[in-house]
Write a structure and sequence with these properties.
InterPro entries: Metallopeptidase_M50B, Peptidase_M50, Rip2-like. By secondary structure, the protein is an all-alpha fold. The protein has one domain. The chain is globular, with a radius of gyration of 19 Å.
């Protein structure tokens, strides 16, 4: 039980922020391009309770990746549906990349300040939990961004692919969306896509963003996934 509450205290805030900002960014960009569905339904808010999917949140603690309730977007309301779809879909992963970069910079800053404040116990008491949360934030945001860029609808990468393909090919490709979740489940649980594709890209991203603090990010992640 103590281990559970430790994981909860470190993972909850970064995870909720990652999935909430991801979904809000979709609705925000859609709103700017002409579709106010998310605004009308009260989903353009950073209140995580408006976006929370209980099962998706629990999966973050169980397998390390989860989801929120998708923000509703009516692509027919967009001023240029095919083109604007690309930006609406890409907004989520881009937001997660930005959050990962900001978290990594803050983590580097804390590490630099901690060297000077190492002799002050009270300083360490406050800084250590924040550093652990930032380390997990780097991991979860990069993972969400990379995973969502898999080019299979309804994932964001699939929607981007539909928007980029020529009209006839995009129509044909969009028809796999009803079967998209089955394809994703097969890829995740019955192939080595995590070992050979996602994990190497994730590792490179962590090393690039966190630099000397990469070891902390990986250590926190291993601790949280036990």
């Amino acid at each position: 039980m103590e281990q559970f509450f430790l994981k909860l205290s470190i993972m909850l805030v970064p995870a909720l922020m990652a999935i909430t900002c991801h979904e809000v960014s979709h609705g925000f960009v859609a709103d700017k391009f002409g579709d106010n569905t998310a605004r009308y339904m009260g989903r353009l808010t950073l209140n995580p309770l408006k976006h929370l999917d209980i099962f998706g949140t629990l999966m973050i603690f169980i397998v390390g990746i989860g989801w929120a309730k998708p923000v509703p977007v009516n692509f027919n309301n967009l001023r240029h549906p095919k083109r604007d779809m690309i930006w609406v879909a890409a907004a989520g992963p881009i937001t997660n990349f930005i959050l990962a970069a900001v978290s990594a910079m803050a983590l580097r800053g804390i590490a630099a300040v901690s060297v000077n404040g190492a002799a002050v116990p009270l300083f360490q008491v406050f800084v250590e939990p924040i550093a652990l949360m930032l380390a997990f934030s780097v991991y979860i945001n990069l993972l969400l961004a990379i995973f969502n860029l898999i080019p299979v609808p309804p994932l964001d990468g699939g929607r981007v692919a539909v928007g980029l393909l020529p009209y006839r090919q995009s129509v044909a490709y969009s028809r796999i969306e009803p079967f998209g979740m089955i394809i994703i489940i097969v890829l995740v649980f019955f192939t080595d896509i995590f070992s050979y594709v996602i994990s190497p890209i994730l590792s490179m991203g962590v090393h690039f963003l966190a630099g000397p603090q990469s070891s902390l990010v990986f250590s926190v992640t291993r601790l949280m996934m036990r």
